[in-house]
Amino acid sequence: MSERINVMKPWFGDEEAAAVAEVVRSGWVAQGPRVAEFESAFAGHMQAPHGVAVSNCTTALHLALVVAEVPTGSDVIVPSFSFIATTNAPTYVGANPVFADVDPDTGNLTAQTVEAALTPSTTAVIVVDQGGEPVDLDGIRAVCDPRGVVVVEDAACGAGSTYKGRPVGAGADVSAWSFHPRKLLTTGEGGMLTTVHEEWAQRARRLREHGMSVSAAARHASTLPPAEEYLERGFNYRMTDLQAAVGLVQLGRLPQMVARRRELASAYVAGLADVAGLRCVADPAYGTSNFQSFWVEVGPEYPLDREGLMAHLATRDISARRGIMAAHRQPAYAAHPHGPLPVTERLTDNTVILPLFHQMTEAEQARVVDALRDA
Ligand SMILES: *Cc1c(COP(=O)(O)O)cnc(C)c1O
């Protein structure tokens, strides 16, 4: 029996283990100097003026909507075609998610789909770089900016992807990142909020730590700490120094991770080019993907449908995933109103995410390609 091929694996070396050991030996394991270092290194890498590390991307999205002052009862446009956290986030501030459809090539919101979903109560849009595919931000900002609609970028999957020559996320008012192991750069759990607005960053920094006026790290640094005040009701959304130490090493590996994923993606495209009925995700004209999720759309010319293909791959010990979910189809949103979402439904029904991880060998990839070819 052949070894099972997983859809994703994190890529760690001894350096991550050594970095964690050093933090343990230092005696300071909670949010402290390593978190501060990781924030500035990550924000610098992503060409964002400010970075605020948090416990995960979902909490980053929540804080993004709080600091952007998205009002309770207002409408926030989101793609249904995304991990459920994108849709849940507006509800955390009492806002109403409004589903917009996506582009058939990238799976992302477009200026047209956003415009079609606008209501008089729209205050924000959460755009997503789905699976690492960069969203075409400029057109969406051209729709939103004149109306005072805030653009939040859910760049959970996007570390290492580019839009018009810059890192994704850099062009939004505020962006949210994930360091879950399903993404490229991982800290186990973890997230980051980046923003161009200094006041938003300062407020997010306070809110992640209970709304405290002086951080625990700053109080610890002083023998006679200043008295702290709780300026507003906050949260505990902190990252630990243990995670940040791993994140710093992983950030250094990011260019290599992206290069390897792009190489493997090209090999998939070459191996599947002449298979009728399979369409591979590709770079859009305006940017480059990190291929966090390499998906194929299964068309009617292919001999199997999506479920049949997944079952076929499973018989070869190949673990694939159903393509990106559609939030409007989930029980949690069963009673939530929405307009027609034909592209979302087609993509969610007919896409498969193929195995792709840094350590994947040529032989492993050939097994996947062969399985897709001989279905
Ligand atoms: C993974 C993911 C999230 C959630 O990230 P967490 O760090 O697990 O909270 C949010 N949005 C998108 C698009 C994602 O892919």
Descriptive report:
Helix content is 37%, strand content 15%. The protein is α/β, with parallel strands linked by helices and 375 residues long. It has a seven-stranded mixed β-sheet with strand order 1-9-8-5-4-2-3, sandwiched between helices. The protein has a four-stranded antiparallel β-sheet with strand order 10-12-14-13. The protein has a three-stranded antiparallel β-sheet with strand order 7-6-11, with no helix packed on it. The longest helix has 32 residues, at 241-272. It is globular. It starts with 13 loop residues before the first helix and ends with a helix. Pyridoxal-5'-phosphate binds at residues 56-58, 82-83, 85-86, 128, 154, 156-157, 178, 180, 191.
Strand order of the largest sheet: 1-9-8-5-4-2-3
Ions, cofactors and other ligands present here are: pyridoxal-5'-phosphate
Q: Which H/E pattern describes the elements?
A: HHEHEHEHEHEEEEEHHHEEEHEHEH
What would the principal axes of the Cα set say about the shape? globular
Rg of Cα set: 21 Å
Strand content: 15-25%
Query: What is the terminal-to-terminal distance?
Result: 19 Å
- What is the makeup of the main sheet? 7 strands, mixed
Number of β-strand runs:
14
Derived from helix and strand composition plus strand pairing, the structural class reads: alpha/beta
Report mean pLDDT, rounded to a whole number: 97
